[in-house]
Design goal:
heterodimer, A: alpha/beta, six-stranded mixed sheet, four-stranded antiparallel sheet, 9 helices, about 30% helix, B: about 325 residues, mainly alpha, about 0% strand
Chain lengths: ~260, ~325
Amino acid sequence: MIGFRDVVVRYPRAAGPAVDGVSFEARRGAITALVGPNGSGKSTLVGALLRLQAHASGAIAIDDVSLDALDRRAFARRVAVVTQREALVFPLPVREYVALGRYPHEGAWRAAGPDDAAALERAIALAGVEPLAGRRTHELSGGEWQRVRIARALAQGGDGLVLDEPTTFLDIAHEMAMFELFARLARDGMAVLLVSHQLNLVARFADAIVLLHRGRVAALGAPAAVMQASVLEPVYDWPLVVTHDPAVGAPALLPLRGRAP
Amino acid sequence: MRRLFWPLAMLALVVLVVAAVLWGAVPLSPKAIVAAALGHGDRETVAIVRALRLPRVALAVLVGAALGMAGGALQGSLRNALAEPYLLGVSGGAAVGAVVVVTLGLATPLLLPLGAFAGAAVAIVAAIGVARAAGGRADPRVLLMAGVVIGAFANAAIMVLLADAPADTIRGALWWMMGSVAGADWTQVAWLALYTLLGGTALLALGRDIDLLALGEESAAGLGLDAERAGRRVYLVSSLLAAATVAAAGLVGFVGLVVPHMVRAAGLRRHRPLLAGSAVLGAALVVCADLVARIAHPPADLPLGAVTALVGVPFFLIQLRRFA
C-alpha cells in the first residue's frame, strides 16, 4: 500500500544522500518493520513520506498513486503517521485531541458531522483509550499518551499507519500491549509500517523486516531471513549472536559484551 | 466554567463599556448620555458623548479584540505560551513603520496602518529568523529574546527618526509609544474596525490550522497541513491585526499575552472558540484598562500601555516560571 521505489533523499549541505535508493512496500494486513542503526535513514524516510524533506529521485506511492499527485489532505485520509515525539504546549482534553484526527476530512467552516463523531468513537475504542477519554493530555503517563496519539491517527480513517519508534520510552507491559495493538490493526487489514529498535519484538510481530544501513536496504524479507548474525553484525557493527528462543518460538538476538566505545 | 464563559464575558464587556461611557471629567446622567448619543440635548453634551467618549470606548474595544486574537493566534501557531505582538517586537516594528510614514508626511488613515503593517511584517520575519538561526524553535525563550531585542531596536530607530523633530512631535510620539486611545476619532475607529473584521475573520478561518500548528510541524504535516504555509499566513494576519492597533492607538503590550490564557483557563481550547473568546475578553480588558487609566490619577490620564504592562508583567513572570 505504501510503496517506496529507488527513493533518494539528500539534506542540503550534507556530503552524501541520507537515503540512497530504497525500495520496499508496506502491504495491507501486515506489519512491515523498518529497522537499522541510528542515522541509517529510517526517520528520513518518514520525513519524505510527510513531505518534510523532498526526495531527490525515485517515487513514493500510496496504492500506486504518486505522492506528488496526492494533495496533503488526501494523503492524510489514507495514511496516518505517528511521529517520534510530540509534546503539547497547551494541553487538550483527550477527546478533543483525538478529534483533531478528523482534520483532513474537514473544510474550513464545516462543523463536525455524524461521520466524524462515529470515526472518533471507533478510533477511541480501537486504540482502547475509552478510560482515558475524560482526562487531559498532560495528565497521561508516557504509555497512555502514545495510545492516545495512535487513537488520533486511527481517527484519520485511513488504512495505512506509520509509527516512528512508538515504544521507545515504554515499560515492558505497555510496549507489549502496543505491539499487540499493531498486530490486531494489521489483522484487521491495515498496512502498518513500524520503525523500531526492538529487534526481538519486531522478529515476533512483523511479517516483513526492512533493514537499513547507511541509507540503503541491507536486507529485506521475513524475520527469519533478516534475523541472522551474519546479516546484523556488519550493519550494527557490534558482536552479537542470534539464537532461537523456544519459549516464544522466534529468533532472539543477544548482543555480546564487547569493546568499550 | 466553559458554559458560563460566553455569558460572563459578554456581560463583563457590556458593563465595562457602559461604565466607560458614563465615567468622565464632566458628570453626565445615563439619560443625558443616551439622549446625546441619539443627537438630543444641548450641544456640549452631544459633543462630549459623540466626539469624545463613544469613539474612545469603541477604539478600546477594537484594540482589545484585535490584540487578543493576534496573541491567541501567535501563541498557538508558534507553540509559545509567551508569544504576543508586543513581546515579539511586532508592535515595535509596526511603530517604526508608522513613524516612517508620518515623517514622510504620508499619514493618511489608509497609509498609516499599511506602513505599520510593513514594519510589523519585517519584525516578525526577523524575530522568527533569528530564533531559527539560533536553533531555538523548540525553546520559546529564544524567540522571545529575539522579539524583545527587535523591540529595543525599533525604539532606538524611532528615536533616531525623530531626532530633529520638534519637541511637540517627540512628546506626542512618546505618548503614543506608551499606547493610548485618548483622542480617538470616528475615522480611526472605522479603519480599525475594517482591519479587525478582515483579520479576525481570516484568523477564525485559520482556527483549525492553528489547532494543528500547536501540535508541532511534523504532526501537522501528518494530518495533511502544509505547516510552513499555514504558519506564514497566521503570522502575517496576526501582524496585520497588531499593526492596525499600533496605527490607531500606539503600543499596548501584554493584552495579547494575558487574554488567551484566561480564555484557555475557562476551557476554550480549540482555536476557533479560543480566538473568538479572546476578542471579547481582550475588548473588555482594554476598556477596563482605559477606565483605570482615566480614574487612577485625575485629572491626568495614565498611558494605557503603562496600565496593561502593570497587569501584564507579573502575569508574564508567572508564566515564565513554568519554564524554569
